[in-house]
Design a protein that fits this description.
- It is a single chain.
- Helices cover 45% and strands 17% of the residues.
- The protein is built from 11 helices and 10 strands.
- The strands form 2 sheets. The chain has a 6-stranded parallel sheet, sandwiched between helices. It has a 4-stranded parallel sheet with strand order 6-5-7-8, with helices on both faces.
- α9 links the parallel β7 and β8.
- The longest helix has 17 residues.
- The radius of gyration is 17 Å and the shape is globular.
- The two termini are 28 Å apart.
- Bound molecules: D-glutamic acid.
- The site of D-glutamic acid has 17 residues, from α3.
């Protein structure tokens, strides 16, 4: 059975691979992390759309049966313009659907500058549930803090308190983790927000959606799990270390060029 392609700007999409492995253990993943051009979260929509199309094309050349755009920034700004002969799933719609269903009425969204500026989550949430109050906050320092491994550090805690303060003031009851890296901060964010605020992991939401869609299309893998394989455009050694930390084991890595 052909693998599921998963694309991200770098290492963060491994949280989506983790969610896919849990929900769809028989599936094999072919992952592409565009580590040479990370971060996407500060780039223009045009540039992110161009990079995303090239990366998806490479996964298609390798014969994937569908593509998950794990990167929230790419999902927010590039998905509507993407051309692909196989199904493509972004993380915005599944994450928004889960949050709209779970919320008592006030949803907070955190993400990169580009994701928040696009208001893709806000638009999807208001379309799915008109009248829902949505408060958004860009948290650009979270990505480097996570990549540094400071997941439960006093510095990260101070930064998070500052980013979350306006959302807490708005009385949110649900928080969408609108960036690949943020699920790794979930324990810290839960501690700061308290039990009254539910967290929505868009990676878990897209894994759930995939399970249903692949089953309906007769595309589910069965039997023994195929081997996952990871392509990166730069810094393979660093990617391998972070992958080990996120997925809990060594990964099969290949350096590729995407022009
Ligand atoms: N993968 C990106 C996202 O989910 C975060 C890292 C980046 O800025 O490239 O938005």
């Amino acid at each position: 059975m052909r693998p599921i392609g998963v694309f991200d700007s770098g290492v963060g999409g491994l949280t989506v691979v983790r969610a896919l492995r849990r929900r769809l253990p028989a599936e094999a993943v072919l992952y592409l992390g565009d580590t040479a051009r990370l971060p996407y979260g500060t780039k223009s929509p045009e540039t992110v759309a161009r990079y995303t199309q090239r990366n998806v094309d490479l996964l298609l050349e390798r014969g994937v049966k569908g593509v998950v755009v794990a990167c929230n920034t790419a999902s927010a700004v590039a998905l509507p313009r993407l051309a692909s002969p196989v199904p493509v799933w972004g993380v915005i719609e599944p994450g928004a659907r889960r949050a709209a269903a779970a919320s008592a009425g006030r949803v907070g969204v955190v993400g990169t500058e580009s994701t928040i500026r696009s208001d893709a989550y806000g638009e999807a949430l208001r379309r799915l549930r008109p009248g829902l109050e949505v408060a958004s906050e860009a948290c650009p320092l979270f990505v480097p803090l996570v990549e540094e491994g400071w997941l439960d550090d006093p510095v990260t805690e101070r930064v998070a308190e500052r980013y979350l303060a306006p959302l807490v003031a708005r009385g949110i009851d649900t928080l969408v983790l609108g960036c690949t890296h943020y699920p790794l901060l979930a324990p810290l964010l839960t501690r700061l927000l308290g039990p009254g605020v539910g967290l929505v992991d868009s990676g878990e939401a897209v894994a759930e959606q995939l399970a249903g869609d692949l089953a309906r299309a007769g595309l589910l893998a069965s039997g023994r799990r195929g081997e996952d394989h990871f392509l990166v455009t730069d810094a393979a050694e660093r990617f391998g270390q972070l992958a080990g930390r996120i997925l809990g084991g060594a990964v099969s890595l290949e350096l590729v060029e995407v022009i």
